[in-house]
Amino acid sequence: SAGEAADELGYGAYVVGGFVRDLFLVRSNEDIDIVIEGNGIEFAKKYAKIHNARVHTYEKFGTAVVIFPKGFKIDVVTARLEYYRFPADLPIVEMSSIKLDLYRRDFTINTLAIQLNPNRFGTLIDFFSAQKDIKEKAIRILHNLSFVEDPTRVFRAIRFEQRFGFTIGRLTSGLIKNSVKMGFFQKLSGRRAFNELRQILEEENPTPAVERMHDYDLLKIIHPDIKPTRKLIADFTAVKKVLAWHDLLFLDEEYLRWTVYFMMLIRQFNKQKSNEICQKFEMAPKYQVIFCKERFIADQCLYWLSFNKSLKNSELYRELSGFKVELLLYMMAAARRESIKKIISHYFTRLRQITTSIKGKDLMAMGIKPGPVYREIMDAVLDAKLNGQIKTCE
Ligand code: ATP
């Protein structure tokens, strides 16, 4: 029905990018991007109306998001010729607006489009030999100035290469080396560089991508001392294992996977250096707290645990209850000894959820005068519950 709505407005409509690529790779992808040859915002409004959906528009960019009642979303962009400044050495050839839109993309594998207009519905459009590169499992840029135009594409190349088990093409690889040598990354704002790094660390298995970053001498953008040593690889492998364990047991619990990997990346650095890294990347304060403060408390706690192994549940609870999920997972991955991993996982799976249901008004009803004694009573009840001295029928 998107094609019909577009037809009524006299616009061409196409599904493009990652969604089409993933159809060819037989991978699921729920992000649908539609390109409109015409006014994308007008189309989005019309389409949303037909489906009782909401629409957010970004007039300045000619883009919109259509949000369906069940939360499903479609991104709509306008293909516009006039907003593209061609790289200097390229002849300005005749291009349809969909072709130009695809030409501006990062890699050939992301340039497939499927037409949606009813009379050509389902027609596959492949201007830049995307199908061939998918077959050859190659990541290739579309023109030689691609990385000059946007250096973040270097990180994207590595991310896609590792995610799909592809290889960065020869010419593309040469251009990456060149852009690293020429220092294009210095032009990139800390925030944008960090955003890419974060996406790499969000991948299912970021380890090989970090090794690839090293191949291209890119880890230095975090800090010149970061190398994929055997120790770092072992730490990353440990994180992967712990996260898999967590995700299996606590399917619905949301947490920031990348932060656990990032803590491992900067594990060798003291507070001051960690701070410098956070500043350089213009990190939000909530992340700075994790990397420059809580991480060090977690390391201290690990050290403490290695001397205090026969703890009562209540003592363990007091030690660990202040840590966020990410920090607990970091500690489990960083703990060298199996016995310490076990202690933390015992807290994680058994103790963490325990609370008391006693409220102030219960104590009042018992005739106890309000005051600091309330806290003491509640703590004592929680301790007794943690240590298995009282059972409740909650
Ligand atoms: P993912 O599964 O990681 O979301 P994706 O291919 O859907 O992969 P997005 O980052 O959502 O990637 O981008 C959507 C599309 O926009 C891509 O297919 C790509 O063609 C284009 N794109 C994104 N970033 C860039 C960029 N820096 N330069 C050029 N094109 C880009």
Structural key phrases:
394 residues; alpha+beta; two-stranded parallel ribbon; 19 helices; globular; binds adenosine-5'-triphosphate
Sequence-ordered SSE layout with sheet pairings:
Elements: H1 2-9, E1 12-16, H2 18-24, E2 32-37, H3 40-50, E3 54-58, E4 63-67, E5 73-78, H4 97-103, E6 113-115, E7 124-125, H5 130-135, E8 138-139, H6 146-149, H7 152-164, E9 167-168, H8 170-181, H9 190-201, H10 207-215, H11 230-249, H12 257-265, H13 271-280, H14 285-305, H15 313-320, H16 325-334, H17 338-351, H18 360-365, H19 372-386
Parallel strand pairs: 2-5, 8-9
Antiparallel strand pairs: 1-2, 1-6, 3-4, 4-5, 6-7
Bound molecules: adenosine-5'-triphosphate.
What does this molecule look like?
There is one protein chain. With 394 residues, the chain is of the alpha+beta class. Helix content is 51%, strand content 9%. The longest helix is centred in the last third of the chain and has 21 residues, at 285-305. It is globular. Bound molecules: adenosine-5'-triphosphate. Adenosine-5'-triphosphate (ATP) binds at residues 17-18, 31, 33, 105-106, 110, 150, 152-153. The site of adenosine-5'-triphosphate (ATP) has 10 residues, from α7.
Overall mean pLDDT score?
90
Computed structural class: alpha+beta
Strand content: 5-15%
- Radius of gyration from the alpha-carbon trace, in angstroms: 27 Å
Shape from CA axes? globular
| Number of DSSP helical runs | 19
Distance between the first and last residues' Cα: 51 Å
> What is the β-strand count?
9
Low-confidence stretches: none
The arrangement of helices and strands along the chain is HEHEHEEEHEEHEHHEHHHHHHHHHHHH
Helix content: 40-55%
Q: Which small-molecule species are bound to the chains here?
A: adenosine-5'-triphosphate
Oligomer: single chain
Spatially, the strands of the biggest sheet line up as 3-4-5-2-1-6-7
> Main β-sheet, in a few words?
7 strands, mixed
